[in-house]
């Protein structure tokens, strides 16, 4: 059974709670990603997503003085390098998240996405299961 250590991305782009929202948006564009961990002294303090930027900064017509700390999601689900891919997939599905920060000794050491699981043949089923749970369609409102 594979561990997250084997498939995680180790060089993770991150922002601090004091950075402005434009830095987060710029990193997302540069790395073609939809979320960035918010890290302070190596510890994960939150996650900021493209959705957070749109709903909590742009739609509120806030200016460039808005910090990442003001718009980030504080409750962060994390994994460990020793966690199995299957456990991580279940955790991601249960919490409806597509990216999982990997933490060791309270320090961010990597990031795993559904894409990381999907491109590695033995884990296609785990990624598919997680995605189907995350992407359950909502009922259209009449």
List the SSEs and their pairings.
Blueprint: H1 4-7, H2 21-31, E1 35-40, E2 43-49, H3 50-58, H4 68-71, H5 85-95, E3 99-104, E4 107-113, H6 114-118, H7 124-134
Antiparallel strand pairs: 1-2, 3-4
Helix pairs in contact: 5-7
InterPro entries: CBS_dom (IPR000644), CBS_dom_sf (IPR046342), Diverse_CBS-Domain (IPR051257)
Domain CBS: 8-64, 72-131
Protein name: CBS domain-containing protein YhcV
In short:
With 142 residues, the chain is of the alpha+beta class. Helix content is 39%, strand content 18%.
Features:
4 strands; two-stranded antiparallel sheet; 142 residues; alpha+beta; CBS domain; 7 helices; CBS-domain; elongated; Diverse_CBS-Domain; two-stranded antiparallel ribbon; CBS_dom
